[in-house]
Amino acid sequence: MRITDGPTRNALHDDAYRYAFRRSLSARLSSVAAVDAVEAVDAVSTGDISERTTLGTDAASRHLQLIAAARASLERYLPPSLPPRIRGNSSLQATLAALPPSERELLLLRYWDRLGAEDAGRAAGEDAGQLPSVLAACVRLLSPPVGSPADFVVVLESADPALSVTRDELERSRRALPSRPGIGPAAKLAGVTSFAPQKEFPDPGRMRDDSQGPVQGGRKLQAIIGAVCLVALVVALATALIPRTEPGPAGELERLYELADVVAVLSASSVEPTLVSNEVRMRQSASVIQIVKGQEEENPLIVDVTGRSTLERPYSRNFFPPHQIMFLTRGQDGILAPIEGEGSVLTLSDLRTPEVTTTAGDPVPMPAELRAAIDALPEDQLTLATSGQAPGSLDADSIIGIRPDEGRDTQNLPGDLLGTFRAEYEDNDACFIFDFNGRTVLIRWPEGFSAYYRERSDADGDSAADAHILTVLNERGYPYVDHNRQTPFIRGVPTGERGACLGQELEVWDIAVAPASTLLFY
């Protein structure tokens, strides 16, 4: 008979589910981890009696095996460096986040998962004797302060996320446990189905009693199964207890995507303090460009960014700073907030590819599935005449034109140093000319540029004009310049060719454009 049959198997499932929920606040991830953990312990329990004795089948050893397997499953989606989210107690969450991951795990195993100190130390890979110093550090970090380690333990235990797990949630998750011969629903149906005869599923005890007879093939098979189970358990324990290298950046985004309730591409917006239940929270109202994951219909989207770095919000003289992609979870108040930790707020640096970077501009590898899901480019783009050369690739010696002095504000230049872009379109094609000091040229754009009719914004400063304006998009899909924009001619290269636009036949210039640049700034 299996060690994990009947009520014991359900109890193991519930313990693993609560362990995972405490660290993820995700019913789906908790169910996956619980099923994986029970199957791992169940696999060990089917080995030869000598192997089970070696591994230990007492309740304490089985519980440690369960936790190791649940952690290994959970860490496929959730990096161990990510602290648990604490609902309604930001100070406690900050305190736990300040601890090294192994010390934090020691603390949670002891006071949330109710392991003994020695078992908690074994499972966390820490010396159990460190527990008093970890508690003392938490007492110092918590605000408002508590009087003693015992007082902190009371605060910690009262914040246990698993206290909110209901019996119905556990029952739903148990249904995902696979049926096995002699276990659960399969046993009830044995008398009315065409299951194979019971002799094809021999009792391990009988096989051991007959070991002196000619059952050599069965003994060898048992030995093989036992060895495989032993190796699998050792791998699981090593994965959970031995320090590992951190997952790669692409893997981090996969985990964030799995954890997020909503993944959204948002435009830059202002952040304002908001009083919520006598507490000042920083709320960001952002225009939604795309909902990549989730069923969020609100626009603008309200995001709680309390405690997030202001460096994550792009401020620049550019009228159109890059969009952000945020991995968001919903709090108890229903408001979305970025997942704790790095990487949950990224800059969408390229709309066409697309590509993302950190707020410092460092590239972040993206999983192919996430890249394919992002579609933040404007619809109905128009074709522009292009040179076939990438931005910044024109021969520097051939570039001519007038450029403002370094650091000079282009908005205060004399009129004779300002030109005007003008545009028209027909069918799916658009063209732009530039008037400068009585001279007009037709602009040819770098490879990857396009145009579209964008909706006017407050930055355009002309609410009485048409609702849309013809705009050039650069090689990354962001606005570069638009119709009737005045700006100094940044330089270009005469091609010797001629073309038509706005009813005129004009000489064609390749405009000199720096990579990822814009002329739309203040």
Polypeptide structure, described:
This protein is α+β, with helices and mostly antiparallel strands and 522 residues long. The protein has 3 domains: 6-241, no CATH class; 257-373, OB fold (Dihydrolipoamide Acetyltransferase, E2P); 396-511, no CATH class. It is 33% helix and 21% strand. The strands form 4 sheets. Strands 1, 4, 6, 7, 8, 9 and 10 form a 7-stranded antiparallel sheet that branches. Strands 17-11-12-13-19-18 form a 6-stranded mixed sheet, with no helix packed on it. The protein has a 3-stranded antiparallel sheet with strand order 2-3-5, with no helix packed on it. The longest helix has 26 residues, at 216-241. Keywords: Membrane, Transmembrane, Transmembrane helix. The chain crosses the membrane at residues 221-242.
Write the layout of secondary structure elements.
Layout: H1 6-24, H2 27-45, H3 49-55, H4 59-74, H5 90-97, H6 101-111, H7 117-124, H8 131-141, H9 149-158, H10 167-174, H11 184-188, H12 204-209, H13 216-241, H14 249-259, E1 262-266, E2 271-276, E3 279-286, E4 288-293, E5 301-304, E6 323-330, E7 336-338, E8 345-350, E9 355-357, E10 363-364, H15 368-373, E11 419-426, E12 429-436, E13 439-444, E14 450-455, E15 468-473, E16 479-482, E17 486-487, E18 492-501, E19 504-511
Parallel strand pairs: 13-19
Antiparallel strand pairs: 1-4, 1-6, 2-3, 3-5, 6-7, 6-8, 8-9, 9-10, 11-12, 11-17, 12-13, 14-15, 15-16, 18-19
Helix pairs in contact: 1-2, 1-4, 2-4, 2-10, 2-13, 4-13, 6-7
